[in-house]
Amino acid sequence: MSTAAKEIKLQITQMDKVYDNGDGVRNINLDVYNGEIVTMLGPSGCGKTTILRTIGGFLNIDAGDITINNQSIAQLPPEKRPTAMVFQSYNLWPHMSIYENLAFGLKLRKIPKDEIARRIDAMLEMVRMPGCEKKYPNQLSGGQQQRIAIARSLLLQPEVLLLDEPFSALDAKIRMQMREELKKIQSELGITVVFVTHDQEEAMAISHRIVVMNKGKFEQVGSPTEVYDNPATKYVASFIGEMNFWNQGNEVIAVRPEDVKILPGHTDNGINGTVRTVMILGHYVDVNVQCGETVIKCFIPRTECGSCDVGDQVHVEFGRNVVFPKDE
Predict the structure, then answer these.
(1) How does DSSP assign 207-233, residue by residue?
(2) CA torsion through residues 133, 134, 138, 141, sign
């Protein structure tokens, strides 16, 4: 998604939210464009959920501003904001049927009954769960409950949909399906989404842009391709995907396993090593080479691996790589 011609939907400016113990986020600036998925990615405690909750109104900010469509929302309570939030824990009311769960917010908005029914029918079709209106949450699987939670939020037609680790309680296969569903729904509706996760594969899969966070600060903001191919800092390089780090003088060379070549025999002026492990993982082979005190990981297409065995003397060559100062 090109951001050049896009209108800014959500803007966070010079925002601070600091807790009593000194943790939190400071001087946060972010533009989110209309119709894009921006993912806040980082380990637990880095501040990503804090930012999401300030957008949703569940936390008050200490400084700065948050605007949607150029209107400040910083002083509005959650129910008055043009946002909807989906939590990890679904938050469906267990005593209400699926229809009642979905209709609840629309009734509060005084929307006519027949219009509510029409919208719910259309939304259940969109999340691929038609005909489940009379069921109760405990009759649905975790993935189905999360679809209903997302449907309930989308029915409110928010300007910005906020998702707080919504798929982390699901097993791997369902999680992958839900990512695909979310991308499809987001694309069809053209909605703006701010997504929070600690799972870098999830961030790479669903995002137009990723905000990589570390200790309350932004390390890099860019497309999945940008943060993968051109990490701005050593932290980003180590956090996104697999990465080898090779110390050379005052520099550290960062190279992806798929950009490492293994060649037979030792060489006079290259990086020599011994094959430590060989693991066949479907269409590629994961080979670890012990080079001095460093283990270099290589991903080799299965067709090119040949007869690479544990104990073989080899040397490695680096393809595309990024260089960082050693003390970074």
Answers:
(1) -SEEEEEETTEEEEEE-HHHHHHS-SS
(2) negative
pLDDT band at 1 (very low <50, low <70, confident <90, very high): low
Burial of 206: CB neighbours in 10 Å, binned 0-12, 13-18, 19+: buried
Please check whether residue 69 is in contact with residue 159, taking contact to mean a CB–CB distance below 8 angstroms: yes
Concatenating the DSSP letter of every residue in 162-177 gives EEESTTTTS-HHHHHH
Tokens describing residue 257: 């396993």
In a domain, 3, yes or no: no
Would 260 be classed as within a structural domain? yes
Do 261 and 296 touch, CB atoms closer than 8 A? no
Which structural domain, as residue segments, surrounds residue 188? 8-235
Instruction: Render the burial of 52-86: b for 16+ CB within 10 Å, e for the rest.
Output: bbbbbbbbebeebebebeeeebbeeeeeebbbbbb
Quick: pLDDT tens for 42-72. 998 899 999 999 999 999 999 999 999 999 9
What average pLDDT score do residues 65-93 get?
91
- For residue 157 the two structure tokens come to 């037609």
Tell me the C-alpha distance between 179 and 166, whole Å.
10
Q: Strand runs (DSSP E) across the chain, as ranges? A: 8-18, 24-33, 37-41, 63-68, 71-72, 83-86, 160-164, 192-197, 209-214, 217-222, 244-248, 251-255, 260-264, 271-281, 284-291, 294-301, 313-318, 322-325
Residue 48 tokens, joined:
């990503």
Q: Is 2 within the bounds of a domain? A: no
Domain count across the chain:
2
Which residues have CB under 8 Å from 275's CB, separation 6+?
Answer: 262, 287, 288, 289, 290, 308, 309, 310, 311, 312, 314
Same domain? For 55 and 105 the reply is: yes
Q: How many CB atoms lie within 10 A of CB 147?
A: 25
Instruction: Report yes or no: 233 and 325 within 8 Å, Cβ to Cβ.
Output: no
End-to-end, the C-alpha distance of the chain in Å comes to: 31
Read off the pLDDT of residues 188-233 as tens digits, 9 standing for 90 and up.
889 999 999 999 999 999 999 999 999 999 999 999 999 999 999 9
